[in-house]
Design a protein that fits this description.
The structure is a single chain. This protein folds into 3 domains: 1-81, Orthogonal Bundle (434 Repressor (Amino-terminal Domain)), CATH 1.10.260; 84-243 and 317-370, no CATH class; 245-313, no CATH class. Helices cover 54% and strands 6% of the residues. It contains 19 helices and 4 strands. A 4-stranded mixed beta sheet has the order 1-3-4-2, sandwiched between helices. Helix 3 (25-36) crosses helix 5, helix 9 crosses helix 12 and helix 15 (273-282) packs antiparallel against helix 16 (288-300). The longest helix has 25 residues, at 98-122.
Length: 370
């Protein structure tokens, strides 16, 4: 009997893979029926995910084909990989529902497994500048942001490429279509692993930069669960100071704040006009009444949903370099590299190679079940 014939799916991995596609059990059963040509019931999927029936052979290949993962991926032990372990942070809207959140958590767990697999085979070692920073009544989130900028030798003023800064500090940044517009980013830093940030490709570049800084704040300040609204507010204050340090931006905000000035400052600082208005109020440059007036003006101009001045979208490069090493130096084929991550070639390259990672991805890629 071959190794392939010995493979048996891990029930928890079947569930994780399905959740990452945003499907219900009925939805997966329908896709399996379409692929197989025979009717597969929701009850069968339920029993398989509960571990009440073994999934091997032709049925394992059917699950893999429908879900778009390799058979080997569906047989991995979720607990042994450490996927999903640790505190997960989100920058999301309050309206986001539980099904979408399950999809995000599953995508994060699978992305962790994928990047761990490819980086381990590539044999690349990196030092990390990340460390926990305590915040309290005396040491504020703004203080934490100043500390990180100082320790990371960030020059005064705007940060030119935040993604590159995070990658150089040891983080893994992946841009993915997260299947929702209700969440901007999600992050996780399990013990002994590199910090991982997933950034939603659907977000505009200026909001993405603030979301990245927000997640950085979570990663360094929040190593334990806490009151959600408090931690979210702390991460916002961290991001504001990290991207717009008060000593530098304050003189630029003071002369006058109007829409034309905000457009100029947006191009310089790489943050949204709304974030600049909020920063001006927090620093006491404008009153709360002036803040509301400016926000109303942005709404009247249609800028709350589509601001003028396009910010250059920053592209992660570290994992693309890992893929290049695997394919050019270690001589793995594109399919072999993709299979390390349990994916088909098309989806793997769409996610992890910078040239296509910002174009979105299909929910069901070409079947890698082999």
């Amino acid at each position: 009997m071959s190794d392939q014939e010995n493979l048996i799916a891990e029930p928890a991995m079947l569930t994780l893979a399905r959740d990452s596609r945003g499907w219900t059990q009925s939805g997966l059963a329908a896709e399996m029926s379409r692929v197989d040509g025979e009717r597969i019931t929701q009850g069968y999927v339920s029993r398989a995910e509960a571990g009440r029936i073994p999934v091997r052979g032709a049925r394992l290949h059917l699950f893999a084909s429908a879900l778009g993962f390799t058979t080997q991926m569906l047989c991995r032990d979720v607990e042994a990989t450490g996927a999903g372990v640790g505190l997960v942070h989100h920058r999301k809207r309050a309206s986001m529902g539980a099904p979408a959140l399950r999809r995000i958590h599953a995508t994060l767990a699978l992305t962790r497994m994928q990047v761990d697999s490819v980086t381990r085979v590539a044999g690349l070692r990196r030092n990390s500048l990340f460390r926990p920073i305590e915040v309290n009544d005396f040491d504020t989130p703004a203080d934490a942001a100043e500390t990180v900028r100082d320790e990371w030798n960030v020059p005064p003023g705007p940060i030119d490429d935040l993604v590159a800064l995070l990658e150089d500090a040891g983080a893994l940044v992946v841009v993915r279509d997260l299947g929702t517009t209700e969440l901007d980013a999600v992050s996780q830093w399990p013990a002994g692993k590199a910090p991982l940030i997933l950034l939603n490709s659907a977000g505009p570049a200026d909001r993405s930069r603030f979301s990245l800084a927000h997640e950085l704040g979570h990663l360094v300040m929040h190593r334990e669960p806490g009151e959600s609204r408090v931690q979210e507010a702390q991460a916002d204050r961290f991001a504001s100071e990290f991207l717009m340090p008060h000593e530098v931006i304050l003189p630029e905000l003071k002369p006058s704040i109007d829409v034309a000035r905000l457009i100029d400052l947006k191009g310089r600082w790489g943050v949204s006009m709304a974030a600049l208005i909020r920063r001006a109020m927090d620093l006491g440059v404008i009153s709360e009444w002036q803040y509301r007036t400016l926000m109303v003006e942005l709404s009247a101009l249609g800028y709350r949903t589509n601001e003028p001045t396009t910010i250059r979208r920053e592209i992660p490069r570290h994992l693309a370099q890992v893929v290049t090493r695997l394919e050019e130096q270690l001589h793995l084929s594109a399919i072999e590299t993709a299979h390390l991550a349990g994916l088909g070639r098309e989806e793997f390259h769409e996610i992890y190679l910078c040239s296509s990672s910002l174009s979105g991805h299909k929910d069901v890629p070409d079947s890698p079940a082999r």
